[in-house]
Specification:
- By secondary structure, the chain is of the alpha/beta class.
- The strands form two sheets. Strands 1-7-6-5-4-2-3 form a seven-stranded mixed sheet, sandwiched between helices. Strands 8-9-12-11-10 form a five-stranded mixed sheet.
- 48% of the residues are buried.
Length: 414
């Protein structure tokens, strides 16, 4: 029997994470608190806020009611104890890794990640954090990469743009057997397809600029913590002073330290735009997933392209895993190989409805040549491991009438 107190997903998008007392009760949408600082009635109260002994807001870099509303909604939707909104998805990833690692530490990650994340790893290496890469994040490959200096395992729910699918329950179980947290980038799947924390992952990071926002109008990121991982003080010394916070230890460490000190905060207006977009996530993703399956099916049978990548195709390597883990939906990214770099460019230049843009998750269809853009600074080896070739095209499928998309792609490819 269903839990009468638990909202289903589309309902939760609208009603989960209720506003706190600082939000005007009459407003059906959270107001935008566009201010840098907040006045208090006394010096004593301001002192209490600074020392975390009293609730309240003092400075938007540290906290803001509009941003808090977005954080509560994301925590409720992803199933975490709390969330921390960041200026971008990259800021979210940086804060989690550097919140857990220090110079001399290591992390293990997939080689087939978003190009920007791979570039971030190069910066981490310069800071003394070693990144050990595996072709696929599986228990078998992790066993050969984890050392006594490993502090976390990092992977994407659906890799961008190779579209490989992470077996979250099995990888999480293996990580926990080693005393390690599994950090999952859930950007491509979004909470609509998958809630990694419910499947055993410990921390979720997400570029909320994508499917969460949905309108392509703001850059942002978010960290959601399950609150279930027990942080060992010797292995994670930066969290030692925050162990008293229990399940909130990681979020408290970041909010009162690294995140605050690096100024990775989210702007109130962006938080508002994300709250607006979040309410339609279910209907947008349902339509985009349907369009993606139809478009991928047409592409694979068109004879105009080769190697169509989409987990929803029956012959996709991770089809069965995706079907089981994502409830019969397969996401809104499709890739294909055009035959040559010239043909890929010609296609991108010839589409009429799709936008030539490097974002994903917009309501409009977007096309991109990854090798010359988001993977331009990666090595040929890194590109190949990520499934990026000179003739690769990535399509972020929108919510247009799919018949128009198919007709547009047909004329562009012909």
């Amino acid at each position: 029997m269903a839990d009468k107190n638990k909202m289903r997903f589309a309902t939760a998008l609208l009603h989960a994470g209720k506003p706190d007392g600082g939000v005007t009760p009459a407003a059906t949408m959270v107001p935008v608190y566009q201010t840098s600082a907040f006045q208090q009635e006394s010096a004593e109260r301001l002192e209490g806020i600074f020392h975390n002994t009293q609730p309240g807001y003092c400075y938007t870099r540290v906290g803001n009611p509009t941003v808090s509303s977005f954080e509560r909604r994301m925590a409720a939707i992803e199933g975490g104890v709390g969330a921390l909104a960041c200026a971008s998805g990259m800021a979210a990833t940086f804060n989690v890794i550097c919140g857990l690692c220090e110079a001399g530490d290591e992390l293990v990650a997939s080689s087939c990640l978003y190009g920007g994340t791979l570039e971030l790893f190069e910066d981490l290496e310069r800071m003394g954090i070693t990144v050990r890469r595996v072709d696929d994040v599986t228990p078998e490959q992790l066993a050969g990469a984890v050392t006594d200096r490993t502090r976390l395992v990092f992977a994407e729910t659906i890799s961008n743009p190779r579209l490989g699918v992470l077996d979250i329950p099995s990888v999480a179980a293996w990580c926990h057997g080693q005393g390690l947290p599994l950090v999952v980038d859930n950007t491509v799947a979004s909470p609509y397809l998958c809630r990694p924390l419910e499947l055993g992952a410990d921390v979720v990071v997400e570029s909320a600029s994508k499917y969460v926002n949905g309108g392509g109008n703001a850059i942002s990121g978010v960290i959601v913590d399950s609150g279930k991982f027990r942080w060992d003080a010797e292995r994670y010394p930066a969290l030692a002073k925050w162990r008293k916070m229990g399940p909130f230890a990681l979020l408290a460490r970041l909010r009162n330290g690294l995140w605050r000190d690096t100024g990775a905060c989210l702007a109130p207006v962006t938080a508002f735009l994300n709250c607006v977009g979040l309410e339609t996530l279910a209907v947008r993703m349902e339509r985009a997933c349907e369009n993606s399956l139809e478009l991928a099916t047409w592409l694979s049978g068109s004879g105009l392209v080769s190697e169509v990548g989409y987990p929803g195709l029956p012959d996709a390597p991770d089809h069965e895993l995706a079907a089981r883990q994502f409830g019969g939906k397969f996401g809104a990214l499709v890739t294909f190989r055009a035959g040559s770099r010239e043909k890929a460019f010609k296609f991108v230049n010839s589409v009429r409805y799709a936008y030539r843009a490097s974002n994903i998750g917009d309501v409009k269809t977007l096309v991109l040549h990854p090798a010359s853009t988001i993977f331009a600074d990666n090595t040929p080896e890194e590109r190949e491991l990520a499934g990026v070739y000179d003739d690769s095209v990535r399509v972020s499928v929108g919510i247009e009438d799919v018949e128009d998309l198919i007709e547009d792609f047909r004329q562009a490819l012909s």
